[in-house]
Design brief:
InterPro entries: DUF1003
Pfam families: DUF1003
Protein name: DUF1003 domain-containing protein
Strand order of the largest sheet: 1-2
Shape: elongated
Strand content: under 5%
Helix content: 55-70%
Largest sheet: 2 strands, antiparallel
Distance between the termini: 91 Å
Organism: Actinomadura miaoliensis
Radius of gyration: 44 Å
Keywords: Membrane, Transmembrane, Transmembrane helix
Order of helices and strands: EEHHHHH
Number of helices: 5
Length: 191
């Protein structure tokens, strides 16, 4: 079956995933049109609301609102009081506010979890690249150390040249390299 962006082509044509071409499509009609909205903009709005609900400013505004409501309906003019003592309407409004705030906060938390998951995956990939780079550099340094250990150093060359000079001058055991004894004064190096 041909796939397009992880979705079977037959399902894409039929309007649903997993639909088969040899089965007729079920037509579902609703009496009311379905609302269309952009999930990303709705998510951003819910995050803004959730951020505002978690601030001290919101608590101050809510406290002032409730105090004014209670003062107006307790101490205000008797003819203009619209929510008497048990304050049923205030309770209803606070319940509605809480019932909308809870899902918006959950939606914002879900979006944050998704962002954290993406960030975690990016950090893990970056750490894997860093480990691979570190291992590569470690191998390169080890190779350089091996190569440097085979290179003749200045001290090694100096000692070898001095040894050869001694051999040429006959200081090695008092004899020349050809086996003949060294003549007098020839074994002393010249300066």
């Amino acid at each position: 079956m041909i796939e397009l962006r992880g979705e079977p082509l037959a399902g894409r044509r039929a309007g649903r995933v997993g639909a088969r071409l040899d089965e007729p499509r079920r037509l579902t009609r609703s009496l009311l049109p379905r609302p269309h909205y952009d999930p990303e903009s709705f998510g951003r709005l819910s995050e803004r609301i959730a951020r505002f609900l978690g601030t001290a400013r919101f608590l101050v505004y809510m406290t002032v609102f409730i105090v004014v409501w209670l003062a107006w309906n307790s101490l205000g003019p008797p003819g203009l009081r619209f929510d008497p003592y048990p304050f049923i309407f205030l309770t209803l409004m606070l319940s509605v506010q809480a019932s909308f705030a809870a899902p918006l906060i959950l939606l914002a938390q879900n979006r944050q979890d998704y962002r954290d998951r993406v960030q975690y995956e990016q950090d893990r990939a970056r750490n894997e690249r860093t480990i691979a780079d570190t291992e590569y550099l470690t191998r390169e340094i080890a190779g350089l150390r091996l190569a440097v250990s085979e290179v003749a150093t200045r001290d090694f060359l100096r000692s070898e040249l001095e040894r050869m000079l001694k051999e040429l001058n006959g200081e090695r055991g008092g004899a020349r390299p050809d086996g003949a004894p060294a003549p007098r004064g020839e074994g002393v190096p010249r300066r």
